[in-house]
Amino acid sequence: MAEFVKTKLNRLKRGANRAVYDKETINEILDAGFIAQVGYIYDGYPISIPMAYARKGDKIYLHGSTANRMLRAILESGKTSINVMHLDGLVIARSGLHHSVNYRSATLFGELKEITDDHSKTALLKDIVDHMIEDHWDTLRPMHQKELDRTMVVEFTITSASAKIRAEGVNDEPEDYELPYWAGVIPVKQKLEKPIPDDGYPLTIDIPKHIQHHYNKFK
């Protein structure tokens, strides 16, 4: 099973027993979400911004306005880090100190470049949209050239990564297990509510089949 090489950059020190370097597991975490936290430095301040993304192999694709200061900053530096995290449960212990959460988190390190030709940009924007809702791009109005011109697409190549996963119960002090306090795990699930049509034409037609399918899958 292919793994990322452990380095000073990606090696987990705290909670090392929960560390995962397996590429397949990390890709599963990435593919289960569509919002990533992207880090950059602006005017001396470390900032992280949530961004929609798509993954293709060892590449992550981001998009934004050509005036987006975060995209400009990471392109100038040539590298950044990205994190994707899923909350899976609230771990309720007998002591406040031992409260925790169950989660899957992947942190990526890599290099960047801008995608500039229109054909590639359009294909990658399709990937980003379809990663959010499968088969959605082909049901949309074609993009205007001026929209494409104002949009920047950035390719992030994963050069190093690690994941940290907690999927267990309460870890209280041994002497606390007989105390009369409730403890346990409250599972957390993300679900979709019923789609709400926009005003105008959408009010007069049925919800498209692919959107209804997506809703049924995650409701």
TrEMBL record:
Protein name: Pyridoxamine 5'-phosphate oxidase family protein
PANTHER family: 5-NITROIMIDAZOLE ANTIBIOTICS RESISTANCE PROTEIN, NIMA-FAMILY-RELATED PROTEIN-RELATED (PTHR34071), FLAVIN-NUCLEOTIDE-BINDING PROTEIN (PTHR34071:SF2)
A Pfam family of this chain: Pyridox_ox_2
Domain of life where this protein originates: Bacteria
Organism: Tenacibaculum platacis
